[in-house]
Design brief:
The protein is an all-alpha fold and about 100 residues long. It has three helices and no strands. Helix content is about 80%, strand content about 0%.
Length: about 100
């Protein structure tokens, strides 16, 4: 009997990402960037550096997810185009 894994893998987690999640990450990125600028302007260099590290991590994740969504959109378009093409071939062969 197969057991459900209570700890999903990275690939399983990535497949659960929604558009709303990306929007939340982009908002978090903007907030972190604002905090980094404010800390720098206030002369709090240590906190500015910490915010910059967080900005770099979140920014990389935003880019990765955005690229994945674009790849999925292209794949979906290709799949739909192939389906229509196959239907047209089947209809042409039936005539």
């Amino acid at each position: 009997m197969a057991m459900n894994n209570p700890h999903p893998t990275g690939a399983q987690l990535a497949s659960m990402v929604r558009e709303e999640d990306l929007e939340d990450l982009e908002k978090l990125l903007k907030d972190l960037e604002d905090s980094a600028h404010k800390a720098k302007d206030d002369g709090r260099i240590y906190m500015a550096q910490q915010y910059i590290v967080l900005v770099a991590n979140v920014n990389a994740e935003v880019h990765r997810i955005r690229a994945r969504f674009k790849r999925e959109a292209i794949a979906s378009l290709r799949k739909e185009t192939k389906r229509i093409k196959d239907e047209q071939r089947a209809n042409a062969g039936a005539v």
